[in-house]
Design a protein that fits this description.
Length: 231
């Protein structure tokens, strides 16, 4: 079934997930603060990507729209914005447009100003919860933030069985997100529902270990596999 999806975010994650979801047949737009300004950028935002206009030339059918337009388009909204600015991004969309919609939140609330990124808050709060509190009529599901952008959309890059998590207060939203995850290649039996949106804390707090593992192993093509005793 074709889903109208708004991917908020023009960085490497937003681009990767938007292309993959469009390939899967979904009706996808990418949201940015100012489309003209984003298209006019002549240098990349960071060393991992080319500038947006250059990338867009290879993706001629991908539509770049403002955040409010993207919010109006999407039945399901993917949060691939800078975590420190995600609330600001959603505030510009407005709570009316987000009411009843699923927000697939994969962002990490990172301070990237130092030599290595660190979480802006943890333990007693999470970005997932902040988005849910700020937009109580939206249905927030935290997922995908425990792997790299490439693994998000191509879990087969990591051999063997490995795990993905969903956290959120709305069961129907978690089912819809799990369906999307299976389309991306995540086997349904490897998607673990870890509970309400409060469980987003654990998913976000895994980030420092993910960064350490990528540094230690020299690759981002990695993930954790939850091993359990037979019930
Ligand atoms: N890279 C990975 O492998 C990975 C893995 C797990 C999770 N994540 C998370 O995925 C998210 C996206 O990561 P990324 O590396 O693709 O991009 P990013 O550099 O973290 O974020 C880029 C996006 O954030 C938006 N943004 C920046 N400041 C803003 C503000 N003040 N108000 C509204 N929007 C603002 C930008 O908007 P404009 O388009 O308007 O410039 C752009 O679309 C992040 O939260 C990151 O932590 C990344």
């Amino acid at each position: 079934m074709t889903v109208k999806i708004a991917v908020m975010g023009t960085g490497m994650v937003g681009r990767a997930i938007a292309v993959r979801l469009a390939q899967l047949g979904h009706d996808v737009v990418i949201g940015t603060r100012d489309p003209q300004q984003t298209l006019a950028r002549t240098s990349p935002e960071d060393s991992r990507t080319e500038c947006y206009a250059e990338w867009q030339r290879g993706q001629p059918s991908m539509r770049l729209v403002s955040l409010p337009e993207a919010g109006a388009h999407g039945e399901l909204v993917v949060n691939a914005t800078l975590g420190a600015s995600s609330l600001e991004a959603f505030q510009s969309v407005g709570s009316t447009k987000l009411a009843g919609k699923i927000i697939l939140d994969l962002a990490l609330p990172l301070d990237r100003s130092g030599t290595s990124p660190r979480l802006l808050f943890a333990l007693t709060d999470s970005l997932g919860e902040q988005i849910q509190r700020s937009f109580p009529e939206a249905r927030v599901v935290k997922t995908l933030c425990t792997v790299s952008a490439k693994v998000m959309i191509e879990p087969g890059r990591v051999p063997g069985r490995h795990s993905m998590f969903v956290a959120g207060d709305d069961k129907g939203a978690k089912q819809a997100v799990t369906q999307l995850l299976t389309e991306l290649g995540w086997p349904a039996q490897e998607v673990i529902d870890v509970g309400g949106i409060e469980a987003a804390r654990g998913l976000e707090m895994y980030a420092p270990l993910l960064f350490a593992l990528a540094g230690a192993l020299g690759t981002w093509d990695l993930n954790i596999a939850v091993v359990r005793a037979a019930a």
